[in-house]
Amino acid sequence: MKLNHEFDIGYPVPCAARLFYFSDRHFVNKLLSIHPSKVGRFYDYHLHHFKSSNVPLPDKLFYRKVMLICEHFSSIYRAKAGKSLFRREQVRYEKKFEKLELAAEILKEKNRRGRAMEGQELIQRLNHKLKSQQQEITALKKIIKEKEQPDASKIIIPHEYFETFIELIIQIRDLEIKENDKLLVTSSQLTWVRMLSHHFALANYEPINANKLRKYFYGERKRFLKSRKFKVISLENS
Fold first, then answer.
1. Maximum separation of any 2 CA atoms in the chain, in Å
2. Per the database entry, which stretches of residues form a coiled coil (predicted)?
């Protein structure tokens, strides 16, 4: 097989469920052949391959697999070094397990730094979210403050003249220029309720509750008006 990259091993790193598959040895052989300064890049290269597989898996699963491979083959080489009868062979195995242990330490440190960076990124994201929420709170406070301020555009009705005003509105609503020819026409009494609640207020800019107004425009409304102080008539009919 032709290798296109210095970190290619000829076989892909197998899934974690097949830890002792023969390609693990290819992975270890390549790891032993590179300089310790390249261990991090070697790891990232195969991590990218691992993540681009058909079944996406978390980074920590790949990290655990690589660490297990290093530990497994390191223990094998350590055992062989202890059993070897020849010094040259013993030294060769010692160099292998020492290099694997060094690679494992490099990857552990890389993993710790990665977690630290993830923690910093998380803190930054939380700070950004907190800042965004604070801005939203400030905006909401501004809206609430604006709503709490009196609406100077509304027309004020003194409390004691409220029913008198309602009676006048009702008379204007029912006013006929000619017989059966009303001055004002609407298909819904709710229109009057909305108009009054939106454009009028009681003393101190107290809002007029729409439900309070409904009783004057629906059903037996006249029983809620205790006295009439004005009468609106058409001069043409007088």
1. 134
2. 90-143
